[in-house]
Write a structure and sequence with these properties.
It is a single chain. By secondary structure, the protein is mainly beta. Helices cover about 10% and strands about 35% of the residues. The strands form 8 sheets. The chain has a 4-stranded antiparallel sheet with strand order 1-30-29-28, with no helix packed on it. Helix 1 runs antiparallel to helix 2. It is globular.
């Protein structure tokens, strides 16, 4: 093999290694995100929350399009297109909290209306565009954060109803979807003496509910597990390596295999929200983001369908500039997946908040909200997920090995 070819092979090996090391040390950008175009378009309103259908083919969202109807529930193909309104005629602004039923035939969201209701309640709307709705909750206060059981028969949600301590804590309730109108009194799942549920503060795990709660006088500082039918007493899930009395748990999810809790909290530094993981049975809480800066905060996050990655929003690099990132489920240096918004000429951001970030069903892409084209006009974006940092390093190693192999073959 000539010296020129040897030198070229060495240069290629060095180039690949540098790319791999850079990926490990610095957040890098993935393939370009694209706006999911909607008809009617979004030029003066925005998209507020969304959910991806169980088969991955559609997106339901709450938003205000250029049709003068205010915030409504719409359905579009995941690649964009004509928006089909799902909320009934004459409905005022829909206030979010959107989720599909497991079979994809219905969407649950909340809005005002109904006999005797002065606040927002949950309604089930068919995805066939018939613009009908069945009322599912009949409470005297606003309801939030809907989840539907795997069999599609039970709606879980949070509400301050029946607050025995009169401290307006939001608690988890359940109601029967098929018989909600005949059974308007919901079942209390999380008792008030240990519960104060923030948005994205609970998860369905088999026949149980896992939630971030508190003792009286504390913030959301503790995890509990309790039967989803309301029949049992919550059992605390102990965190062994952090004093929790002064901490605050803001968001939580459970991995698809039911083995780990992923959550956002300020356990390490007061006021700095970071990502952690912990075994579902309790134990050591592990920081997933190395060297997070003091100004940075993690917002909402999503777990990939196969449980291998986490996508999250936050101002991880620049103070106050929200972006979207991915990391392996075990933690590591984030890779930025959202587009670069620094040069658009206004204060553009990836939007933080529940219902604003999700993996596609196949796990190949992430959908998020950002005002990339007009200030304050939040639109749906989709971006492919690039390999996690450890995969890039392995790729670099494999590439070097391949180069070495080609050299040996050429020398024969």
């Amino acid at each position: 093999m000539s010296r020129t070819r040897v030198f070229a092979s060495i240069c290629e090996a060095v180039r690949v290694l540098v790319l791999g090391v850079a990926a490990l040390l610095f957040p890098i950008s993935a393939a370009s995100a694209v706006v999911i175009e909607v008809n009617p378009p979004v030029t003066t309103g925005d998209v507020d929350e969304f959910a991806i259908s169980p088969d991955g083919s559609q997106i339901a969202f709450v938003g205000s399009l250029d049709n003068g109807l205010g915030d409504q529930v719409y359905l579009i193909p995941i690649g964009g297109g004509d928006a089909t309104r799902l909320s009934p005629d004459g409905v005022g602004d829909v206030d979010g909290g959107i989720v599909f039923t497991p079979d994809g035939t219905g969407v649950v969201a909340r809005y005002g209306g109904g006999p005797g209701n002065i606040d927002n309640q949950m309604y089930l709307m068919p995805t066939d565009g018939s613009k009908t709705a069945a009322q599912l909750t009949f409470n005297s206060t606003n309801v939030f954060d809907p989840m539907v059981s795997a069999d599609g028969n039970t709606l879980f949600y949070t509400d301050a109803r029946d607050d025995g301590f009169d401290d307006l804590d939001d608690l988890v309730f359940a109601t029967s979807i098929p018989n909600a109108a005949a059974m308007p009194a919901p079942t209390l799942i999380t008792p008030d003496d240990v519960a104060e549920i923030d948005t994205a503060g609970y998860a369905l795990v088999g026949s149980d509910v896992v939630f971030a709660g508190s003792l009286p006088g504390e913030g959301e500082t503790r995890f509990y597990r309790t039967p989803a039918d309301g029949s049992g007493t919550p059992t605390e899930i102990l965190v062994s390596n952090f004093p929790l009395a002064d901490a605050d748990i803001d968001e939580m999810m459970v991995t698809p295999d039911g083995q780990m809790i992923i959550f956002v909290g300020d356990l390490t530094t007061d006021g700095v929200d970071e990502l952690y993981s912990m075994p579902i049975g309790g134990g050591t809480a592990t920081q997933l983001l190395p060297g997070i800066q003091s100004f940075a905060d993690v917002g909402i996050f999503a777990i990939s369908p196969d449980g291998s990655e986490i996508a999250f929003t936050g101002d991880y690099v620049a103070d106050g500039v929200g972006e979207a990132y991915v990391i392996p489920i075990t933690g590591g240096t984030p890779i930025r997946i959202s587009e670069d918004l620094t040069g658009v000429g206004f204060n553009a951001d990836v939007v933080n908040g529940a219902g604003r970030l999700a993996f596609t069903v196949d796990g190949d892409s992430v959908v998020y909200l950002a005002d990339s084209r007009a200030n304050g006009v939040n639109e749906l974006h989709i971006v492919p997920v690039i390999p996690e940092p450890t995969s890039i390093a392995l790729f670099a190693t494999a590439a070097v090995a391949a180069i070495a192999t080609r050299r040996r073959v050429s020398d024969r």
